[in-house]
Design brief:
By secondary structure, the chain is an all-alpha fold. Helix content is about 65%, strand content about 0%. Helix 1 runs antiparallel to helix 2.
Amino acid sequence: MFIRRIGVFVICFAIASMLLFFVDLNIRILTWVDMWGTTIGWILRVVILVFGFWLVHKSGDWDP
């Protein structure tokens, strides 16, 4: 259950970072994402999002 909550938290952070990018804002803890440019920043956002989904999937205590 704890791993699933962490996964959901990571997913929320990734989606918030993606949405805030369009209004030229960012979450302070994720400011390093755009350090290497916009393209790499988007790749890292997607990787963080996929990692969150992986955590939710691997937690094993969810019912589809």
